[in-house]
Amino acid sequence: MKKLFITIAAVLLTATSMAQSLERMQWFNEPESWEIKDGTLIMDVTPHSDFWRISHYGFTVDDGPVLYTTRGGEFEVKVKISGDYVTRFDQAGLMIRIDKENYVKAGIEYVDGKYNLSAVVTHHTSDWSVIKLDKPVPFVWIKALRRLDAIEIFYSFDDKEYTMMRNCWMEDNTPVMVGMMAACPDGEGFKAKFEHFQIKHLPDQRRLEWLEKH
Does the structure show a pLDDT above 60 at 193? Predict the structure, then answer.
């Protein structure tokens, strides 16, 4: 009975910690309406908001909402994403960001009536890569690993089998904002939902290599 009580207490503590961790995170461009309930973030995405810098379109915007925490080392982050996408370029995903000129956003994006897995990598100027999906999906899992000077981005539809969608450079040994982002460049907003957001610390790769040699 004592062991059962300890197990239940540990589960409750874990669930509480997850909810509290979202509540302790900070907003960048806080939307007008949002809520956190049972470890889930639901936001009304700010109309006519986006993240993009210069290339192709010739403009810079940096006004989409992001709920974030800060990490200084290597980590794995993942989240389950869903949304009521209705207008071209409606999007939701993960954001890993140093500053306005250096960030990665990756998730799902609605373009011309199609669902796309989307990644934008910005180092002074932005680029955009997409994987078009054959049909709408109710949700997608996005996972990112920060290792040394690289960000590896994966997607999954079941949180079991993950497929890489992008590998890009990001300056290492530099603190980053890590969190959940959404944007609505063309429309009047939509609801985005983020579930099971979690970050796992990874030991520094260079230090591990040093320890093996000494």
Answer: yes
CA distances from 13 to 37, 41, 157, 196 (A): 16, 19, 28, 15
Question: Rounded to an integer, what distance in angstroms lies between the CA atom of residue 125 and that of residue 18?
Answer: 35
How many other C-beta atoms lie within 10 A of the C-beta of residue 151?
20
Largest alpha-carbon pair distance within the chain? Answer: 66
Quick one: average pLDDT of 177-201?
A: 97
Q: Residues with Cβ < 8 Å from 5, sequence gap 6 or more?
A: none
Q: Is 19 helix (H, G, I), strand (E, B) or coil?
A: helix
What is the Cα–Cα distance from 150 to 186, expressed in whole angstroms? 31
Per cent of the chain over pLDDT 90 is: 89
pLDDT-derived band at 198, boundaries 50, 70, 90: very high
| Average pLDDT score, the chain | 92
The conformational region for residue 130 under phi > 0 = left, psi -120 to 50 = alpha, else beta, is: beta
* Separation CA 38–CA 78 (nearest Å): 17
Confidence of residue 116 (pLDDT cuts 50, 70, 90): very high
Q: How far apart are the first and last CA of the chain?
A: 47
